[in-house]
Amino acid sequence: MLRGFMLPAREWQIEDTWYVAGLKGTGSHHVTLRDTLVPAANCFDPVSGGRCQPGPLYQAVLQLIPLFHSAFAVGVAEGALDALVELANTGRQQQRAAVPMRASEIFQYELGRIEAELRAARAVCQVQARSHWHHALAGTLNNDALLAEGTQTAIWVTATCVRVVDACFAAGGGSALYESSPLQQRMRRPSRRGPTCGCATATLRKFGQAAPGQSRR
């Protein structure tokens, strides 16, 4: 059984414990409640509870969450690619390299490969979003098969974007190691975000078990 609840901010105590790699900008915290009674009116069921707001997207919260993680991963990967291109356009030439980065055939190949992977991840994310929106408009979004499909998408998109960001970090050379480098900052985020949001590869087995015989239409 999964239940959520809401309480005024004054009831919560924020613990100063959230020191993790790559999630400094998420606003995440550990919180503590002590000797607090939560009224029934403040509780909700995120799985099978009724919605309290109109609109097609509010009928199925769990089905939407994986898409949020997919969009986050794509955004970080896009930022990493932009940062790499910006670095190359400064005319930077790595130590012992014969030519600047942007004139290097090896760099150009890597850049093309990275962009292709990012475009694939973005396309899959957009296709899944359109599919979910279609089901939302039809009133059929609250479906276990669609939850599995969206979660599979989030796992693949996140893993692909991690590869994109890692490749951008490697192509950036030694300057990417500094904390001030946007490549270093982005490298840590998607690789840490995946495990915290349930986008671990092991999750695929769970949904692969249930997939035979399920209808997504």
Key descriptive features of the protein:
single chain; Butyryl-CoA Dehydrogenase, subunit A, domain 3; two-stranded antiparallel sheet; mainly alpha; flat; 5% strand; 217 residues
Question: Mind explaining what this structure looks like?
Answer:
With 217 residues, the chain is mainly α. The chain is 52% helix and 5% strand. It has 2 domains: 4-44, no CATH class; 57-210, Butyryl-CoA Dehydrogenase, subunit A, domain 3, CATH 1.20.140.10. It is built from 5 helices and 4 strands; from the N terminus they run E-E-E-E-H-H-H-H-H. The protein has a two-stranded antiparallel sheet with strand order 1-4. The longest helix is centred in the middle third of the chain and has 34 residues, at 105-138. The model has no long low-confidence stretch (mean pLDDT 83).
Short description:
This protein has 217 residues and is mainly alpha-helical. The chain has two domains: 4-44, no CATH class; 57-210, Butyryl-CoA Dehydrogenase, subunit A, domain 3, CATH 1.20.140.10. Helix content is 52%, strand content 5%.
Uncertain residue ranges = none
Tertiary shape? flat
Structural class: mainly alpha
Name of the CATH superfamily of the largest domain: Butyryl-CoA Dehydrogenase, subunit A, domain 3
Tally of separate helices: 5
Q: If you compute it from the alpha carbons, what radius of gyration comes out, rounded to the nearest whole angstrom?
A: 21 Å
